[in-house]
């Protein structure tokens, strides 16, 4: 019992069944059976998995708080305080994890311990044993609901999201590299009390079936993560997005979905998608026939022109052709290699500078100006470019947000050019690096990402049905 909570004077009447809430677990309404014959209390739980360090282990589990509503799933996590063998009334013994939580009944709250077990066949999702009952509770064994009634209707409204506490999450970062971005994601997540595991995408494999799709890793099934943060390298886009699709099938929240990553990596499709959403970009042309060089160049404009390989990343495979003849030579050379490429108008007034806007959850959380190295028209930091903090205009902000929305990305690096005709989007990056922008802006971008992620994994309300079990 919590010593800070003073009991009300007199006795509290409990029937053999009462409405309770467990605010620490985000369960605002539960029906509990009161059983003084049982010493320990028990909570219905499934998908029970431990996580976190051995010195402070936690347990992640999910609850169906409303009998018969398997579509309502409340994910929970708590610190493990013990493990006990519990013998049920039919003589079967089960080893269970023990957690602690505040219980609220009417106007009273106190701390109780409870074990986690599958009570899916029981009408009451919780059992209150005698250890959980305060000294001034008296049991009226012939009656129910002596205390104020609650309603399952709370799970059909936004209140179920508001009731969810900030809990410890189990998060996977899909990454093959031990770089600044991956380290920052682990560091920031652990600082916020989460367990963050780095998973090499190429070492994942999948069990694809209708009943229980799974992701395996090094011979074992991966646990049920609360969220996945993809850091998929360009060289493994196809396999990486297949792994993300599998997590999506399971129902795991992925910061960026497989469709958005695939679209952002296909430069031709990316430009078509932006055109469909009327997002400003440099004039762009693409063709497959080697006879169309002149027509291709005319579609874009006069030299200088940019010729860009479709598979290019970090400025590699991007060539500036300063004259018409140079452009013809570059295009013919790329065609000779049977390479797919785009031809784009060169925005002269950008003067080798672009702006990287980092979008998280529909907000631009940071922006930097990147300037190319001496004599280089490309502004990529990987190629020696310099980054400084920049103040963006309202139009630039709106353009970056529209671009991220077009690709359905919760995390996006949108690269803009400042042209005389307004901002033009060069590229939308679905795995933007954090080092350059955090260093230049002194902003904690990883923190913003976790704030968004934490809001997204809160439980969603379910549709109300006419015959709710609330009596």
TrEMBL record:
Keyword entries, A-Z: ATP-binding, Ligase, Magnesium, Manganese, Metal-binding, Nucleotide-binding, Protein biosynthesis
Molecular functions per Gene Ontology: ATP binding; metal ion binding; ribosomal S6-glutamic acid ligase activity
Superkingdom of the source species: Bacteria
Stated name of the protein: Probable alpha-L-glutamate ligase
The keyword Membrane appears for this protein: no
Organism: Mameliella alba
InterPro entries for this protein: Asp_endopeptidase, ATP-grasp, ATP-grasp_RimK-type, ATP_grasp_subdomain_1, Peptidase_aspartic_dom_sf, Rimk_N, Rp_bS6_RimK/Lys_biosynth_LsyX
GO terms under cellular component: cytoplasm
PROSITE patterns for the chain: ATP_GRASP
Pfam families: RimK, Rimk_N, Zn_protease
Residues in ATP-grasp domain copies: 271-454
Organism classification: Bacteria, Pseudomonadati, Pseudomonadota, Alphaproteobacteria, Rhodobacterales
Family: In the C-terminal section; belongs to the RimK family.
Cofactors that this protein relies on: Mg(2+); Mn(2+)
